[in-house]
Specification:
The complex is a heterodimer of chains A (97) and B (885).
Chain A lengths: L1 H9 L2 E2 H11 L11 H11 L2 E7 L5 E7 L1 H25 L3
Antiparallel strand pairs in A: 1-3, 2-3
Chain B lengths: L2 H12 L1 H25 L4 H12 L2 H11 L3 H19 L1 H30 L10 E7 L5 E2 L1 E2 H10 L3 E14 L5 E8 L3 H5 L5 E2 L15 E4 L1 H8 L9 E4 L2 E8 L16 E4 L3 H4 L13 E9 L5 H19 L8 E5 L6 H39 L1 H9 L4 H37 L4 H6 L4 H26 L4 H6 L9 H36 L9 E7 L7 H17 L3 E7 L9 E7 L8 E8 L3 H5 L3 E4 L4 H5 L4 E5 H7 L9 E4 L6 E8 L14 E5 L7 E8 L4 H14 L6 E5 H8 L1 H35 L1 H9 L4 H34 L11 H27 L3 H6 L2
Helix pairs in contact in B: 2-3, 5-14, 6-12, 6-14, 6-16, 12-16, 12-18, 12-25, 14-16, 18-25, 18-27, 18-28, 19-23, 25-28, 27-28
The chains are: A alpha+beta (97), B alpha+beta (885).
Chain lengths: 97, 885
């Protein structure tokens, strides 16, 4: 979900940018091995939620840019919605009366 | 997985390498960018790189995990295993070749057996939609399965609604006349035969139902492809012309497709098909066969109507059967029809018998394959021992045990598949040899071919085999104890289980090959014995010629005239001592039975007896001594005089205490003529050499329903030389009469032993095969043990052990295994011999020759197989051995 969310916010990103984006937005709370991003991207590709294309970085280096597909966006909406439902439920449970 | 996923997945498969390269590049970029960022944060370049790599994590694992996301890991692993396996197999060329050859022999033997089994028991019939065809059979009062009587066939054809069509046929000998008369088998078939089977003529047309009527003006015939090619050189212009069958002109309307020989495998494939109702024209004496419900001679095949199941058809047929029985009432000639699915080339009655024989025979190649597997398993175990360091290393760097087992099994699979491919070639040769050695019916040998069904069976067998021989070595090889194996420099025996497992395989091989050797020996012994049996006649200088006067419609007078002329002419041939005629030859496989009783006895005192109608001089010609009394006179033997000659067994049974000469007997039930006993002939063998004494009566020739006849002559010298002039005499008397089976009596007797000879040849060949495999096995194990123990031998010898002691050490080990195997093998052989004793003539399990012979041969081979490596062991140079540490 984090990958989809990051792509939704920034449009087209390559792997390193996605990793940076995730660690920035989560304020460095979610620190994982950055390598684990790549298997996740392969899975998203297989499911057709993102597409990838080779492009150039600002420093003129070849990089693969990922972009959300319409199906990916729908998937993100679904996930966000179900996440929010759970979050609300948890919040209600934790709320002092 | 949805369509889109599938499509993306397939695209991935196609461009897998590129995808992986992309990923590699991406990850490199990622680490570099991170390192740059780290440098910007003030780290030294080296430290920046290290931190970037640390933050990225295990790159190899990441790559594998990404690949796993596409779910193709197994595919990669398989292709990796296959590549690895073929590299391994190529590296060890000689042992791979040995394994492939061994497997090829084992698999080839089984492929041949399967080809035989398939052709007789499983192959679909040569018809369209063969699985909709069923056999319609009936049961005799004794419960045997039988063909139908013609009137019953007509009832089922007309009233069974479960059938789309019902055909009947019967196979019979016919005389093809013309330039050269020959005797062939043809099938009489109902007019709908070809239509219901869905078989179309390759040339011309098949016959129609309206041609299958009594007294059709011009009978038609459809030739088999084989006859057309043989007799007419495949000339298409022959269609539309006429040929002579049993002296009648018939017109050829078509040629059957190549390879078509009816739904049944017969001893000799039919050469032509003619409409059933032309039978009375071609064989006038057989016209009662269409009306008598007790004459059951018609093989019936039905095609199920669309949508009707076999069970529904059975219900329908049972209903008709009951109606039929009720209508026939008291005469009890009707019997219910039974349906059987039509598969393989045998009708249900023969099928049951053949299945028994084949299941016995199929065990033999199975045993050969088992021995082959044990051999290859030994080879692989040896290799696993050699490779244990490599395997230990693989485990140490993280390969799991299932992964290693899978890898080793892949090697076995590759071996087995290559072995199977070579095995198919072996089976070609072997099937040819089997057909050649054992009298396989001609129709069967023509259908023996390697087709898709056989190939599928072979590959399945190869895969099963690979597990069979590969599993034990794989499990053993994948379990090296890591530390000792890696530390040890790789000499000495590895663990205890390895050699024990291999020894067990060797013992098993010795056991199986001894069993096969003993059984083959027993067969050979039984045959030798059968050849020594006294047949009760002097076959030495006797030749016989058979023919069937019924084929050409001879009446009683014509027959008497013909036989008298024939005997006169035969007696006039120089070199012929005497000549006689008989309708049943001894040991020909044909027997006719009747009952006989003293003339004054009440009807239920009859004795079942077999008989032959003979002329005078029959006894002199065949060398059958008359114990007492006199032979038929020439006059008696052509005029069906009321006389008879009994054999000793019959005389003893009818008159245990009195002199039989001059007694009066009634032959053939209450209506039979009363005859006077002229003589008692010595007992002999009548049907086969293995039979126990049986009652037999000789009657003079006369009008008889049996139309086949044999001319028997005793020559003064070589009987084979007499055959040609006799054949000329027959031809001169009637050029349309074909002669069948012209040979010496010795040949005829040998022929009766052919089935046994084929079986013993088969078992013998397989026995030798397993002997070769087993000795290779022992040799392999001992040779490998010597290699492994080179260091130990070196130490022993440098400590003063003389060469003979070292040699004895290894020989002892090989012989120990052989002795255990022999003991087990002997025990199993004895049990098997007891079981087989009933099946083969004179097979006495107590005959020690086969047991002693088998044990000696095997023992010698085992000793040699262990001596050769032992000699090598004793030649080990202690210095070299110790230095090779």
């Amino acid at each position: 979900m984090l990958v989809l969310r990051t792509l939704a916010r920034h449009g087209e990103l390559h792997g390193f940018e996605i990793a940076e984006g995730i660690s920035h937005t989560s304020a460095e709370v979610l620190q994982v091995e950055e390598g684990s991003l790549y298997p996740a991207l392969q899975r998203l590709l297989l499911q057709g939620w993102v597409t990838a294309e080779w492009g150039r970085t600002d420093g003129n280096r070849r990089a693969r840019y990922y972009r959300l597909t319409p199906a990916g966006r729908r998937q993100l909406d679904r996930q966000v919605e179900s996440y929010q439902r759970i979050a609300r439920a948890i919040a209600r449970v934790l709320q002092p009366n | 997985m949805r369509i889109g996923d599938l499509w993306r997945w397939l695209r991935f498969l196609r461009r897998r390498d590129r995808v992986m390269r992309d990923l590699e590049e991406e990850m490199t970029l990622h680490v570099e960018l991170r390192a740059e960022a780290n440098r910007r944060d003030g780290l030294s370049p080296a430290e920046a790189d290290r931190a970037a790599r640390r933050r990225f994590g295990n790159r190899l694992a990441t790559r594998d995990e990404s690949r796993e996301m596409w779910g193709v890991g197994w595919l990669d692993r398989l292709s990796q295993d296959l590549r690895y396996a073929s590299r391994q197999l190529r590296r060890h060329r000689s042992s791979t070749a040995a394994a492939v050859l061994t497997l090829a022999l084992g698999i080839g033997a089984n492929t041949s057996m399967f080809t035989l089994l398939d052709a007789t028991l499983f192959r679909p019939a040569p018809a369209s939609d063969p699985d909709r065809l069923v056999w319609v059979m009936t049961r005799s009062p004794e419960g045997r399965l039988q063909p139908l009587a013609y009137p019953d066939y007509a009832v089922y054809r007309d009233s069974a609604r479960a059938f789309a069509g019902v055909v009947g046929y019967s196979t019979a000998p016919f005389a093809i006349g013309g330039d050269s008369a020959e005797l062939v088998r043809g099938q009489l078939a109902t007019g709908n035969y070809f239509d219901v089977l869905g078989v179309r003529a390759a040339l011309g047309r098949t016959f129609r139902s309206d041609e299958d009527v009594r007294s059709h003006p011009s009978p038609v015939v459809v030739l088999s492809d084989a006859l057309w090619r043989r007799r007419y050189a495949g000339n298409p212009a022959i269609v539309g012309t006429t040929m002579t069958l049993n002296g009648q002109d018939v017109s050829i309307v078509g040629i059957a497709p190549p390879g078509f020989s009816g739904v049944e495998l017969t001893e000799e494939p039919p050469s032509f098909w003619i409409p059933l109702q032309t039978l009375p024209v071609l064989r006038p004496q057989h016209s009662a066969m269409f009306t008598d419900p007790a004459e059951r001679w018609l093989q019936v095949v039905a095609r199920l109507a669309p949508g009707v199941s076999l069970d529904q058809a059975r219900t329908d047929v049972a209903l008709i059967s009951r109606r039929l029985e009720a209508a026939r009432g008291a005469d009890n000639t009707a019997a219910g029809a039974l349906l059987f699915p039509l598969v393989g080339g045998l009708d249900p009655a023969n099928r049951r018998e053949a299945a028994e024989v084949f299941s016995l025979l199929a065990v033999v190649p199975g045993l050969v394959l088992l021995v082959a597997c044990a051999n290859v398993a030994n080879l692989l175990l040896a290799r696993a021992i050699d490779r244990r360091k490599e395997l230990a290393l693989r485990r140490a760097i993280g390969a799991t045990r299932p992964r290693l087992v899978r890898q080793l099994l892949t090697e076995s699979l590759v071996l087995a598949l290559v072995g199977g491919a070579v095995g198919v070639a072996v089976s070609y040769a072997l099937t040819g040899a089997i057909v050649h050695a054992g009298h396989v019916p001609a129709a069967l040998s023509s259908t023996l071919r390697v087709d898709v069904r056989v190939l599928v069976a072979t590959s399945v067998l190869a895969m099963l085999t690979s597990v069979l021989f590969g599993l034990a070595p794989a499990l053993f090889g994948s379990k090296p104890e890591l530390a000792p194996t890696l530390k040890d420099e790789g000499s000495g025996m590895a663990g205890r289980r390895g050699p024990r497992l291999r020894n067990a395989f060797v013992v098993g091989q010795v056991t199986v090959s001894l069993v096969l050797l003993v059984v083959a020996g027993l067969f050979l012994q039984s045959m030798a014995k059968a050849l020594r049996v006294e047949p009760g006649l002097d076959a030495g200088r006797v030749a016989t010629l058979s023919f069937d006067l019924g084929l050409l419609g001879y009446g009683a007078d014509a027959r008497t005239g013909f036989t008298r002329q024939l005997l006169d002419a035969a007696n006039a041939v120089p070199g012929i001592e005497s000549a006689a005629l008989a309708d049943v030859l001894p040991l020909s496989g044909y027997m006719f039975g009747t009952t006989i009783a003293p003339a004054d006895a009440t009807s239920d005192e009859g004795v079942r007896v077999h008989f032959s109608n003979v002329t005078s001089d029959y006894f002199r010609t065949l060398g059958i001594p008359l114990a007492r009394g006199r032979d038929f006179t020439a006059q008696e033997s052509v005029s069906s005089a009321p006389v008879a000659i009994v054999n000793e067994t019959l005389a003893r049974r009818l008159w245990p205490h009195d002199d039989p000469i001059g007694r009066r007997v009634r032959v053939g039930g209450e209506d039979g003529p009363i005859r006077e006993v002229l003589a008692v002939a010595r007992d002999g063998k009548y049907d086969n050499l293995g039979e126990s004494p049986r009652a037999f009566v000789y009657l003079p020739q006369g009008p008889s329903p049996v139309t086949s006849l044999s001319l028997i002559v005793r020559s003064r010298s070589n009987p084979a030389a007499a055959i040609a002039p006799l054949r000329q005499i027959v031809q001169a008397l009637d050029p349309n009469l074909p002669v069948s089976r012209a040979w010496t009596l010795d040949q005829a007797i040998r022929e009766t032993l052919d089935k046994q000879r084929a079986a013993s040849a088969l078992v013998g060949v397989f026995g030798l095969l397993t002997l070769a495999l087993a000795s290779l096995g022992i040799y392999g194990v001992m040779a490998h043990a010597v290699t492994l123990r080179t260091r130990e031998i070196g130490i022993r010898m440098s400590l003063g052990a003389p060469a003979p002691v070292v040699r004895a050490m290894f020989v002892r080990e090989g012989v120990r295994l052989a002795v255990i195997g022999v003991a087990l093998g002997l025990a199993i052989s004895v049990l098997l011999a007891l079981a087989l004793a009933s099946a083969f003539y004179g097979l006495a399990p107590a005959d020690m020759l086969a047991f002693i012979g088998g044990t000696t041969v095997l023992g010698a081979v085992a000793a040699l197989a262990s001596y050769l490596p032992a000699r090598r062991a004793a030649r080990v140079d202690p210095l070299v051995a110790l230095r090779s540490l």
